[in-house]
Design brief:
Layout: H1 4-33, H2 37-63, H3 83-110, H4 114-144, H5 148-171
Helix pairs in contact: 1-2, 1-3, 2-5, 3-4, 4-5
The structure holds MU-OXO-diiron.
The site of MU-OXO-diiron has 7 residues, from helix 1, helix 2 and helix 3.
Length: 173
C-alpha cells in the first residue's frame, strides 16, 4: 500500500514522463519536417519509451492501492534552431528527470517505503543510460560542427550509434 505522500510524488512523476513523451514527439515532428529521417525515428522511439516509463508508474500506483492521476500537460516547444540545440534541450530535460527521480527515491527513504524504493531502482539505471546516450550524441554533433556531409551521415547512423552506446553502457565498456 502506498501512502498519500508517495502516491502524490509518483503521480507527479507520471506527469513528468508524459510530458517527456510529448516533448520528444514534438522534436520528432520537427526533425521529420526538416528532412532528418533518422533523428525523427530516434525521437519517435524516445517518445514511445517515455510513454512506457509513464505506464509502468501508472500500473505500479494502481497495483499498490493508490490511483494514478492523468494530468493536463504543458505544451512542448515546437521549433528548434538546429539539431544541436534540440539535443542540448534533450540532455537538459533528462538531467531534470534524473533530479526528479532522485528526489522521489529520497522521499521513499523518508517514508520508509522500501517496495517503492526498490521499484524506482529501474528508473535510476534508466536515467544513467539516457543521460549517457544524450551526451554521446552531443559529442558526435560537436565533432561534426558545420559539416553538412557529417550531419547527413549522423542522421543516417543515429539509430546505430545509440544501440552501440547503450550496449557499451550495459557491458561497462
Ligand atoms: Fe523517462 Fe527519459 O526519462
Amino acid at each position: 500500500m502506498v501512502s498519500k505522500i508517495i502516491e502524490k510524488a509518483l503521480n507527479e512523476q507520471i506527469k513528468i514522463e508524459a510530458e517527456s513523451s510529448q516533448i520528444y514527439l514534438s522534436m520528432a515532428c520537427w526533425a521529420e519536417v526538416k528532412g532528418f529521417e533518422g533523428v525523427a525515428g530516434f525521437m519517435f522511439d524516445q517518445s514511445q519509451e517515455e510513454r512506457d516509463h509513464m505506464l509502468k508508474l501508472i500500473k505500479f500506483v494502481n497495483e499498490r492501492g493508490g490511483q494514478a492521476k492523468i494530468s493536463k500537460l504543458s505544451e512542448p516547444n515546437v521549433d528548434f534552431k538546429t539539431i544541436k540545440e534540440m539535443f542540448e534541450m534533450l540532455l537538459k530535460h533528462e538531467v531534470y528527470v534524473s533530479d526528479s527521480i532522485n528526489e522521489l527515491v529520497h522521499i521513499t527513504l523518508q517514508e520508509k517505503d522500501y517496495a517503492t524504493h526498490n521499484f524506482l531502482q529501474w528508473y535510476v539505471s534508466e536515467q544513467i543510460e539516457e543521460e549517457a546516450m544524450a551526451r554521446t550524441i552531443l559529442d558526435k554533433i560537436n565533432l561534426i560542427g558545420d559539416d553538412k556531409g557529417g550531419l547527413y551521415l549522423f542522421d543516417r547512423d543515429i539509430q546505430q550509434l545509440t544501440v552501440v552506446s547503450s550496449a557499451a553502457i550495459q557491458t561497462g565498456a
